[in-house]
TrEMBL record:
Residues 10-123 form the CobE/GbiG C-terminal domain. InterPro entries: CobE/GbiG_C, CobE/GbiG_C_sf. This is Cobalamin biosynthesis protein. Pfam families: CbiG_C. SUPFAM superfamilies: CobE/GbiG C-terminal domain-like.
Length: 128
């Protein structure tokens, strides 16, 4: 791993639909404001082909997050569908926060792929 990844403190939380493709995820990851240390998504989505391709291509580790771990996580985005399904306003934002650990902060609300098939949110780990 390069020095950028070793010193990176950003975690990218990813939400994606079945139809998401590698190009969708690459376009969202390219919006990162700084080097990304890893990716996170719900355990059920961790095997998605496009996400596995992204991990293989970037060598970024993927942290699968259990659904109960994101329930109740407050997020700036408040999607009624996400609240009904996951008990949090944004899967991407909540996964990023959980994976980045205690004291993490979101750098902003989730970003949505133009076709709506994927979302990404960036959380910064608390400095040591």
């Amino acid at each position: 791993m390069g020095d950028d990844i070793m010193s990176a403190r950003l975690i990218a939380g990813i939400g994606l639909r079945a139809g998401a493709c590698l190009a969708d995820l690459e376009a969202l990851l390219a919006l990162a404001p700084a080097p990304v240390a890893g990716l996170a998504t719900l355990s059920d989505k961790a095997g998605h082909a496009a996400l596995r391709e992204l991990c293989d291509k970037t060598a970024l580790p993927l942290t699968p997050i259990a659904g109960q771990a994101i329930a109740g996580i407050p997020t700036p985005t408040r999607s009624p569908d996400q609240i009904a399904r996951f008990a949090t306003g944004s899967l991407a934002e909540a996964c990023a926060l959980v994976a980045a650990g205690t004291g993490a902060r979101l750098l902003g609300p989730r970003l949505v792929c133009p076709n709506g098939r994927a979302t990404i949110a960036f959380a910064e780990r608390k400095p040591l």
